[in-house]
Write a structure and sequence with these properties.
It is a single chain. By secondary structure, the chain is of the alpha+beta class. It folds into 2 domains: 253 residues, 2-Layer Sandwich (Beta Polymerase, domain 2); 64 residues, Methane Monooxygenase Hydroxylase, Chain G, domain 1 (Up-down Bundle), CATH 1.20.58.340. The chain is built from 9 helices and 7 strands; from the N terminus they run E-E-H-E-H-H-H-E-E-E-E-H-H-H-H-H. The protein has a 7-stranded mixed β-sheet. Strand 1 and strand 2 form a beta hairpin. It is rod-shaped and about 120 Å long.
């Protein structure tokens, strides 16, 4: 699907590809948004505007030079947008999708393979004319600004979940080990993917701030957004430390529980060893064993076994091991 946004008399209008081809006028187009476009649709857009839209392979390149580059007329950007199964029903995990941006003159071109909440918000904002957006640069900045706010919300969610795990570890003695460890590992992956996207956006905004193409007003907004991103980077570092501490706390508690079990078995072995020894001696049934002829031999052996088991229990109790 391809949507074209033009601004006329302080209002945005939305056009389809067929309508735009019939209309013919392209100068007032501020935004071309391509969602899961077909190859022939991309070819038509490229021919209409004389622009090169990055394909899926180019958008997924990890080198900085591949994720942000300029030529005489355009700025081409690939940026990570985080998707999580916590918030997207059809998502198969936590992953970053690369979204392509091309800015040529006053027009922004975006290409993506998934429905993203960020773009839905911007589409509603444009349709309702909630904010004055007069150029492709301003629409690009609005998309990034909303995405950064959403990343901040995701980090706050991860922080709240970490606090819940900490409370369970400290207050509940019957925390399920497998479930808790899985939650910690999931949150670590969650935070890692967000950090990857945040760092990617910081590099892109830094490179754009050095460019001579964006207007001065856009550059001022870039510096503000970069400060916001830097604060998120600090928050990510703190959250990473929290998750690592939770993992260490979980392992320490698991070790303590294991030590309790081992100590219990050790005490049981020590308590049972003397009675077992006595029972073994008098169970040999040799013919010349004088105790076999005693009338009180059986109760005396039982008493000796009980006494030999009770004495270690009293000792361990006095030492505080039980």
């Amino acid at each position: 699907m391809v949507r074209f946004y033009t601004r006329q008399e302080e209002q945005f209008q939305v056009w389809t590809l067929e309508e735009m081809q019939s209309r013919g006028e392209l100068k007032d187009v501020l935004w071309v948004d391509m969602l899961k476009p077909k190859k022939e649709e991309i070819d038509k857009v490229e021919a209409m505007f004389g622009v090169d839209v990055p394909d899926k392979f180019e958008r997924e390149e990890i080198e900085l030079s591949s994720r942000y580059w300029e030529d005489n007329e355009t700025i081409t950007i690939s940026s990570y947008f985080f998707i999580s199964f916590f918030f997207v029903k059809d998502a198969k995990g936590h992953y970053n999708e690369s979204v392509g941006f091309v800015i040529k003159g006053n027009t922004l071109f975006t290409i993506r393979e998934s429905e993203l909440r960020t773009f839905e918000t911007v589409h509603k904002m444009v349709a309702q004319n909630q904010k004055e957006l007069g150029s492709g640069y301003e629409i690009f900045m609005q998309i990034f600004d909303i995405r950064i706010d959403q990343d901040a919300d995701l980090l706050e969610y991860a922080s709240r979940e970490s606090d819940e795990i900490r409370k369970k570890l400290l207050l509940e003695s019957d925390v399920k080990s497998t479930e808790t460890l899985k939650k910690i590992a999931t949150l670590q992956e969650f935070t890692l993917k967000i950090r990857q996207g945040i760092f990617d956006k910081r590099r892109i905004l830094t490179a754009m701030a050095k460019s001579s193409k964006p207007p001065q007003t856009i550059k001022e907004d870039l510096f503000i957004m970069m400060r916001d991103i830097n604060s998120l980077v600090e928050f990510i570092a703190m959250n990473d430390s929290t998750l690592e501490n939770l993992q260490n706390l979980f392992l320490a508690q698991t070790s303590i529980e294991q030590n309790k079990i081992i100590k219990l078995f050790t005490v049981a072995n020590v308590v049972l060893m003397p009675p077992t020894l006595i029972a073994s001696i008098y169970g040999m049934n040799f013919h010349f064993m004088p105790e076999l002829g005693w009338t009180l031999g059986y109760p005396l052996s039982l008493g000796a076994m009980i006494l030999s088991g009770v004495i270690p229990l009293i000792y361990f109790k006095n030492r505080g091991w039980l």
